[in-house]
Design brief:
alpha/beta; 219 residues; 8 helices; single chain; binds S-adenosylmethionine
Length: 219
């Protein structure tokens, strides 16, 4: 990855530990590696792509929980969607929502090339409008779109999550800036984390993995 939000990467974990942990983590499939290469060729920055540690964690959660119906909010070029689709059982299905037209095209091409089991459904639109329209409930929801709307996505997603289902939220530590939030995304994420901590409808664990991941379980 070239840069992180246009700045050198600030790592929550000691860089040597992070690098060691990545080396000891199951590698991406050949298809996922090709998707990363293709994304890198077509875009100047691919730092929004969540990476193998988050991807592998999502795969584990799907396999351990037996999730069959998964929703992703924020597709980008399709990295985490493809990772999660690979973990789904026969008959499983992943719906992912993206509003940016260029990213929609790239993700669509990637799913056509790499989603061999046709498990991925791409919804082209604004997740703030699309999530409330979705029918049925999901076993796992991965929230990874714009940080200022996390509270709104959470409100809309919780009703779409099965009882006992998991909501996984990325970037909750925002390079560690949530400790003394100075800008609006850091403030929004800090407020979001505090709201989750106070919400009796769920139990959660905030893991200092990469840029911070919260795993929320609906009671
Ligand atoms: C961090 S990236 C997602 C990365 C992806 N999950 C991955 O791991 O490769 C966030 C994406 O959310 C999209 N996005 C932001 N706000 C959105 C919204 N309201 N509705 C749908 N997509 C949105 C952005 O265009 C961007 O592609």
């Amino acid at each position: 990855m070239k840069k992180h939000r246009g700045k050198p990467i600030v790592q929550i974990t000691d860089p040597d530990i992070e690098e060691y942990a990545l080396r000891m983590t199951t590698s991406e499939s050949e298809d996922v590696k090709k998707l990363v290469e293709s994304s890198d060729e077509q875009l100047e920055y691919i730092d929004m792509l969540s990476g193998n540690m988050v991807g592998q964690l999502l795969k584990m959660l799907i396999k351990i929980s037996g999730a069959r119906r998964v929703l992703e909010i924020g597709t980008f070029t399709g990295y985490s969607a493809l990772m999660m689709a690979e973990a789904l059982p026969e008959g499983g299905e992943l719906t992912t929502i993206e509003m940016n037209i260029l990213y929609q095209e790239l993700a669509e091409n990637h799913f056509r090339s790499f989603d061999k089991d046709q498990k991925i459904i791409l919804i082209k639109g604004d997740a703030r409008e699309e999530v409330p329209k979705l029918a049925g409930v999901f076993d796992l929801i991965f929230l990874d779109a714009d940080k200022l709307s996390y509270a709104e996505y959470y409100k809309n997603s919780l009703g779409k999550l099965a009882s006992g289902g998991l909501l996984v939220v990325d970037n909750v530590l925002w390079d560690g800036t949530i400790l003394e939030p100075q800008e609006e995304k850091a403030m929004a994420l800090d407020a979001f984390n505090k709201a989750i901590a106070d919400d009796d409808r769920v139990e959660q664990v905030l893991l200092p993995v990469r840029d911070g991941i919260t795993i929320i379980r609906k009671k």
